[in-house]
Amino acid sequence: MSRECILAAVREALPGNGKDRARHRAVAERLAQPPLHPSGAGATPMPPDALAACFKAHLQRLGADLIEVAREDEIPSAIANDLAALGLPPRLRRGTDELLASLPWQTAPSLTVETGPAEARDTAGLSHAIAGVAETGTLVLASGPESPVTLAFLPETHIVVLSADAIVSQYEEALAMVLASSGGRLARVVNLVTGASRTGDIGGKIVMGAHGPRRLAVVIYGAGTAAAAVR
Hints:
By secondary structure, the protein is α/β, with parallel strands linked by helices. It folds into 2 domains: 1-35, no CATH class; 45-221, 3-Layer(aba) Sandwich (Rossmann fold), CATH 3.40.50. It contains 6 helices and 12 strands. The longest helix has 15 residues, at 18-32.
């Protein structure tokens, strides 16, 4: 390669030329308006009622306990009743996000509620899911100071609160909701929870609680329709 060709290539690569600015604009535009990913056949848009029914069916298939309440203020007593019915200690560790903090916990006086990251002695942890994915029955949890990730892994019973309006068809919609909830910045950790922890690696026998909670309970509140896709 001649000296002139080498210098021309260097000049072309230097910042400040027209092509460089065009590339920067193209990158900025793609980040601001990312293209939609192709959707599989199982992600066909469903009406709101079908979304909720599909999500609940997957939860039941996965062995999760389903608790439905009409209003947010019914959540504490519903959780207390569920723990009592299973013979579990009336103790709960929860996050401090706006919804969980605003619930009337005094309506469940038998329940001892603590906040913050889970500890080894905790038997039940409570999280607030940003979204539920109907096509697989998956809960989408974003970690943060108000939603410690340990609540989803350390206690043997994991209880997740989910708005009926936050049930969507597919993962792309759920992740768009995660971004919207945090002002466009993705959380450090996003956990996709599909049923309780289990493994069949040893002898093909299913063992519960191998890598996390043995039991998953989902409290769906509100009678609203499932959220529309975020575009």
